[in-house]
Design brief:
Length: about 230
């Protein structure tokens, strides 16, 4: 037998300078994307789509609430003003009722734009229903004074519209409709279709109607004294 060989234990130096260790591959594992389409993505997209779907519902409900409030205030004001038996009291009372409601609530209430078309149809039907065959007979008999009066009023209204536009800065379309002769209901409906300041137009014609109602009896008594 060969010489005894003592097993040599590795020293601290041997452990420090031992054989090189094989390189270790560092694998970085990415956490699953929480916003991927396979985990939470469909839920988020579903919520987003549901939010987009419910937005028009909220707008429609708000428009219906505004419509109910406005029509309720207009109905109350029109019925209250109709007891005064003054021409044009219904539209004036409805307007004042809505204005009072907006002042009390301090909210931007407005009718949906789709209702403008319907309102113009109602106004046109109201004006058209006042027509009668006797009007054609009157037109044939008094054609000359009717045309002269209409043309003079239109010309005077046009001159006043130019003055109001130049010195008071009123929109030309609004100034022309405001100074044009015509029934308050018809002119208000025309203002809604021409995209002008309907409240200013209504204020002009409402003031005209009130002044005519107040001054007409005195003017008639004075005219009978001279004619």
């Amino acid at each position: 037998m060969g010489p005894d060989r003592k097993r040599r234990l590795p020293t601290r130096r041997d452990r420090a300078t031992g054989p090189p260790r094989p390189p270790v591959d560092i694998v970085v594992r990415r956490r699953p994307d929480t916003t991927s389409s396979t985990t939470i993505g469909p839920c988020l997209r579903a919520r987003k789509n549901s939010g987009q779907a419910t937005a028009p519902r909220g707008d429609t409900m708000q428009q219906l609430i505004h419509l109910a409030l406005i029509m309720g205030a207009a109905l109350a004001g029109g019925l209250l003003a109709s007891r005064l038996n003054i021409p044009g009291s219904i539209i004036i009372g409805a307007m004042l009722g809505v204005i009072l409601l907006k002042l009390c609530l301090a909210a931007p209430l407005a009718l949906p734009k789709q209702w403008s078309f319907f309102i113009q149809i109602v106004v046109g039907a109201t004006v058209g229903s006042s027509f009668s065959p006797d009007m054609l007979k009157q037109l044939g008999h008094y054609a000359v004074p009717i045309l002269i009066s209409a043309l003079l009023l239109i010309l005077l209204g046009s001159v006043m519209a130019v003055v109001f536009t130049k010195f008071w800065g009123i929109d030309p379309g609004t100034a022309f409709i405001s100074t044009s002769p015509g029934a308050m209901t018809a002119m208000t409906g025309m203002a809604g279709g021409l995209n002008v300041d309907i409240f200013l137009v209504l204020t002009f014609h409402m003031t005209r109607v009130i002044l005519v109602i107040l001054l007409a009896p005195a003017i008639m008594r004075i005219s009978r004294m001279f004619f």
